[in-house]
């Protein structure tokens, strides 16, 4: 997609998202950004760096703490033909704006027979691990992916973040773009080095709804998303020492969900561990396992396992929170239990 | 050889920061003006640019604390 001789250049996910936004704003005057501290600060999670200087206050709108109002306004703008990108600073705050997201944005294309879709992107931070307690640490993947009418994506690295954001902005459906705080490249949230990768400067897209096999293996399939992809990769490295060859799949997109890639992998390996830092029950891990076992169980060599967040509010206490979170050693143990 | 030094006026406060990311690897070739590292102070990110082109040698690793005036890398 870009010339082979270009210079290597690593970006954080924060920078990659900012670059995607800037390039799309240059390309399409209907794209604009709204949210809390998206202007001069460049986003609390660095998602809108440099945008105010280049595009000015009309297209980079700082809002008060008023999610009901500004996310409602974004839905209105989208149905009238604009392409707003709004930031819900923490996904945990979805409650006060869920009517606009789910009863308005997600359903309008259907209600209008396709005449009035809501092409907006709602970008929102997810995940904990840095002691920010129960109202600032949730993932809520399953909550959003459960509801039809919206696409839901989450990048695990800067390359995917840029390409998924470009696809999300150009998509005519509302897209919930979740970014994990641990991967953002902002120091105070913990920085996972594997998320900072080489990113082409030219614009490109990563399709919504296509998972990626990030490590090939033969004996067990580890499925993750966002931060848990990196934990699964760490576990795969450990498992190799145990003589177990683990395949790691990065879902990248929950809606649409690339069931085929998961299924083909488990047909090959016969074993499945799903890793999810969202609550265990009624969520991503159950959906992935159901996807596989409803195709039959003759190719499955061991009962599928999940390493997910227990069904409790996220504790503030660091030892208690770390106890609840998935990690590489839990994944390794779950994989070993499949043999 | 040029030093990659944290400018005395990169941030206002008299506090230490932390290198959150190196955007190039040790041994990579970089150009003058490339953002080579990011430093966080009080939850605000600051960019460190290469003062000249050359081959990067990292002297202070990511996640290490730094102060204004520190040399964090070299270009040769």
From TrEMBL, chain A:
Gene3D superfamilies: 3.40.50.920, 3.40.50.970. InterPro entries: THDP-binding (IPR029061), Transketo_C/PFOR_II (IPR009014), Transketolase-like_Pyr-bd (IPR005475), Transketolase_C (IPR033248). Its cofactor is thiamine diphosphate. Residues 11-186 form the Transketolase-like pyrimidine-binding domain. One of its GO terms (molecular function) is oxidoreductase activity. Keywords: Oxidoreductase, Thiamine pyrophosphate. The keyword Heme does not apply. NCBIfam families: PRK09212.1 (NF006667). This is Alpha-ketoacid dehydrogenase subunit beta.
Automatic annotation (TrEMBL), chain B:
Signal peptide: none annotated. Keywords: Lipoyl. Residues 1-76 form the Lipoyl-binding domain. Gene3D superfamilies: 2.40.50.100. It holds the Pfam family Biotin_lipoyl. This is Biotin attachment protein. PROSITE patterns: BIOTINYL_LIPOYL, LIPOYL. It comes from Emcibacter nanhaiensis. It comes from the Bacteria.
């Amino acid at each position: 997609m870009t010339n082979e001789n270009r210079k290597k250049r690593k970006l954080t996910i924060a920078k990659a998202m900012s670059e995607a936004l800037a390039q799309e704003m240059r390309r399409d005057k209907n794209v604009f950004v709204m949210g809390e501290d998206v202007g001069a600060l460049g986003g609390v999670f660095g998602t809108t760096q440099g945008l105010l200087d280049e595009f000015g206050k009309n297209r980079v709108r700082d809002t008060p703490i008023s999610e009901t109002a500004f996310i409602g306004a974004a839905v209105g703008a989208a149905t009238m033909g604009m392409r707003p990108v709004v930031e819900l600073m923490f996904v945990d705050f979805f409650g006060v704006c869920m009517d606009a997201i789910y009863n308005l944005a997600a359903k309008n294309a259907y209600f209008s027979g396709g005449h009035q879709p809501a092409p907006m992107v709602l970008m929102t931070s997810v995940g904990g691990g840095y002691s920010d307690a129960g109202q600032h640490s949730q993932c809520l993947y399953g909550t959003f992916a459960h509801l039809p009418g919206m696409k839901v994506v989450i990048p695990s690295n800067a390359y995917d973040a840029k390409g998924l954001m470009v696809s999300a902005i150009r998509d005519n459906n509302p897209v919930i773009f979740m970014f994990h705080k641990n991967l953002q490249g902002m120091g105070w949230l913990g920085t996972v080095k594997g998320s900072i990768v080489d990113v082409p400067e030219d614009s490109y897209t990563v399709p919504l709804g296509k998972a990626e096999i990030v490590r090939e293996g033969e004996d067990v399939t580890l499925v993750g998303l966002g931060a848990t992809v990196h934990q699964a990769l760490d576990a795969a490295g450990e498992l190799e020492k145990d003589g177990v060859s683990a395949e790691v799949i990065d879902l990248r997109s929950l809606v649409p969900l690339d069931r085929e890639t998961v299924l083909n992998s488990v047909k090959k390996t016969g074993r499945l561990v799903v890793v999810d830092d969202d609550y265990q029950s009624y969520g991503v891990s159950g959906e992935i396992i159901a996807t596989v076992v409803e195709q039959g169980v003759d190719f499955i060599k061991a009962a599928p396992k999940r390493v997910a967040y227990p069904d409790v509010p996220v504790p503030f206490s660091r030892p208690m929170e770390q106890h609840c979170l998935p990690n590489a050693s839990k994944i390794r143990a779950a994989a070993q239990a499949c043999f | 050889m040029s030093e990659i030094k944290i400018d005395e006026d990169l941030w206002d406060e008299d506090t230490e920061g932390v290198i959150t990311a190196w955007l190039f690897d040790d041994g990579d070739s970089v150009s003058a003006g490339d953002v080579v590292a990011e430093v966080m102070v009080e939850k605000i990110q600051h960019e460190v640019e290469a003062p000249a082109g050359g081959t990067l040698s990292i002297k202070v690793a990511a996640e290490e604390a730094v102060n204004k005036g520190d040399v964090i890398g070299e270009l040769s």
